[in-house]
Specification:
- By secondary structure, the chain is an all-alpha fold.
- The protein is built from 12 helices and no strands.
- The longest helix is centred in the first third of the chain and has 28 residues.
- The N terminus is likely disordered.
- Bound molecules: fe (ii) ion (FE2) (2 copies).
Length: about 290
């Protein structure tokens, strides 16, 4: 079952694939329309996106021996993710001239290397290629809804444009990994197994990646001594800043995409139940 015919979970991709930094209308930048919380979360997102080459090496190990089209698709995906980092980073440098993408990224790299990126193993940490693809779909569902939320929340025109372009890319990535999952030979994973992988990946999002990227992006090096990194504190700040942009429709879309990735009905009770639950939890946190 492909996603192509299911318009109900389609984030209308206004922007085509293959855009470059030169396609962005940078001259439209309007410093009077900035929002500090959006700026803080965009800076952190730039670092995570810019880190894509590590993911590419890892995924290429997982898909070693797969056809050349699969490897080419992974490489293209990685180039697009890294460009997301460059575009968000350049915008953040315009919005806050004290922010330097390369400098903040160097600090982030120094302090953050997930175990499975450092290894040389040729198997997925999810147990199988299918499992790996489900985890990727969860991430792409998250980024697709996140950039849609940023696009809708931003009043600054260049951020609106970049977030719109990225949201469309992320949706295409989701579809690419979704199709790749279904193209894998061998038996399909059971629904519970798939749900466990999806939930496991969602829980991993609480790890250092988001907290530490937020820290490196928003605490300048000269303030490191008086504001040391504390995972819990910066994890909270990072999710507060990102969740401020979300509206209920973004959460519902996110849940539908994840539910579809595990093979359940995106318009069935599982999606409605988790959509409502997640939204209530976020609303209760004051998001
Ligand atoms: Fe991305
Ligand atoms: Fe992506």
């Amino acid at each position: 079952m492909g996603l192509g015919n299911d318009s109900s979970v389609t984030v209308a991709p206004v922007y085509k694939q293959g855009w470059t930094m030169d396609d962005v209308h940078w001259s439209m930048f309007d410093a009077t329309k900035l929002d500090p919380e959006l700026l803080a979360t965009v800076k952190a997102a730039a670092l995570v996106e810019y880190n894509a080459p590590d993911y590419v090496s890892y995924l290429k190990r997982v898909f070693a021996g797969a056809g050349p089209e699969t490897i080419a698709a992974i490489e293209q995906w990685g180039r697009e993710e890294a460009q997301h980092g460059r575009a968000l980073g350049r915008w953040a440098e315009m919005a806050d001239p004290t922010f330097k993408l390369e400098e903040a990224f160097a600090r982030f790299r120094k302090g953050y290397t997930p175990e499975h990126f450092a290894g040389v193993e040729e198997t997925s940490v999810r147990g199988s290629r299918r499992g790996e693809m489900i985890a990727r779909c969860v991430v792409e569902s998250g980024t697709s809804s996140y950039y849609s939320a940023i696009r809708d929340a931003s009043e600054e025109p260049v951020l609106q444009e970049i977030a719109g372009r990225i949201a469309a890319d992320e949706y295409r990535h989701y579809k690419m990994f979704y199709d790749l999952q279904n193209a894998q030979p061998g038996p399909e994973l059971g629904l519970w197994k798939k749900l466990l992988i999806a939930v496991g990946r969602v829980r991993e999002s609480d790890d250092d990646e988001l907290a530490f990227s937020y820290y490196c992006a928003n605490v300048p090096p000269e303030k490191e001594l008086i504001t040391p990194y504390e995972r819990k504190k910066f994890s909270k700040l990072a999710s507060k800043a990102s969740m401020a942009a979300y509206r209920r429709k973004h959460i519902e879309k996110l849940v539908q995409m994840v539910v579809k990735a595990v093979g359940a009905n995106p318009h069935g009770w599982i999606a409605s139940f988790f959509g409502a639950l997640l939204w209530r939890r976020l609303a209760a946190k004051g998001a």
